[in-house]
Amino acid sequence: MTPVVGVQRWTRTSIASSGVAVAVVVLLAFVPIVLSADTTDRATTFLVYLILAAMWNALAGYAGLVSVGQQAFFGLGAYFAVKLSNAGVGVYPSFVVGALCAGAVSVPVSWFMIRLRGGEFAIGMWVVSEVIFRLVILDQSIGGLTGTSLGPVLETYSASARRNYNYWLALGTAVLFLGLLFALLRSRTGASLQAIRDDEEAAASVGVRVLAGKNVMFVLAAFGCAAAGTLWLATNITFQPDDFFGVKWTAYMLFMVLVGGLGTFEGPILGAIVFFFIQDQWGDQGVWYLVGLGAAAILFALALPRGIWGTIEERTGLRLFPVGYRLLLAGEGRTA
């Protein structure tokens, strides 16, 4: 066996990549100023997809909790934002507080759900989503199944101001959640979560607090999805429960993560780019678009089971944003 001579976390590549990422974020802040209104709207949509992909990957890729019900929090964030706005809270503060309220709801939900495993958790989350959806449409103050619109309150802002505010809010939210996820994964909690994902019993046997770790990731993922829901409401204005609580949102998340690479930090970013391009080019094709999306997911699963970035990482060892440790092997001049 080749002896291990050290442990490495940062490499020259990852340091350079992090610097580039910071520069890209700074440049992205100027998108509404230097680019067209249409480009700004598209960029806002992409950022919402990115948040959703990163949060689903956090839950399934790192905590091993495969959910088909994350639309519960996506819709709940928008619902709370509408309720708060109707109660007189400023419309943009209501987006932030609405996400916080949905995140708070996820805390008691997590107490029950994280005790389920595998398919039980996946189906359980779908049931939770359906229950929340049914409760929301009973609320006639938001129009029941018909929904309502934030048009009257958002129209107090000019169209250009709304577009810019929505974009900057989306950019700030994406940076916040990706930063929180990166910091969490590099902490002791992150290491324990990956141990839980790989073998829950073995992790518990060495003292890892399994339920506590799952709970942290469940709440973070729910909060992120809720924030994405409020951003979608901000850009689309109308709240229709059957749309916001539709299972298509989890299907989108699953597609982006599987294409990009489950259990990698970079994968969901790449998957969101691929999905955004497909959605932008063929999203208006109706049912054929969904058929094509499903076919593409199957092809990726067969040809690249680890996703695009997962395959790149497996074959080259390249990691742009390291969230784990790597062993330095003696005499080989490389890491593994």
Provide structural commentary:
There is one protein chain. The protein is mainly alpha-helical. The protein has one domain (27-265). 72% of the residues lie in helices and 4% in strands. The chain has helices at 12-28, 31-34, 37-62, 71-86, 91-113, 118-137, 151-154, 159-185, 188-198, 200-205, 210-236, 241-244, 248-260, 267-282, 287-303, 307-316, and strands at residues 4-8, 148-149, 238-239, 326-329. The strands form 2 sheets. The chain has a two-stranded antiparallel ribbon. The protein has a two-stranded antiparallel ribbon with strand order 2-3. The radius of gyration is 20 Å and the shape is globular. The chain starts with a strand and ends in a 7-residue tail after the last strand. The model is unreliable at 332-336 (pLDDT under 50).
Query: If helices are DSSP runs of H or I spanning 4 or more residues, what is the number of helices?
Result: 16
Shape: globular
Order of helices and strands: EHHHHHHEHHHHHEHHHHHE
Mean pLDDT: 86
**How would a textbook summarize the main sheet?**
2 strands, antiparallel
Helix content: over 70%
Number of strands: 4
Low-confidence stretches: 332-336
Distance between the termini: 13 Å
Structural class: mainly alpha
Percent of residues in beta strands: under 5%
Radius of gyration: 20 Å
Give the number of domains: 1
Strand order of the largest sheet: 1-4
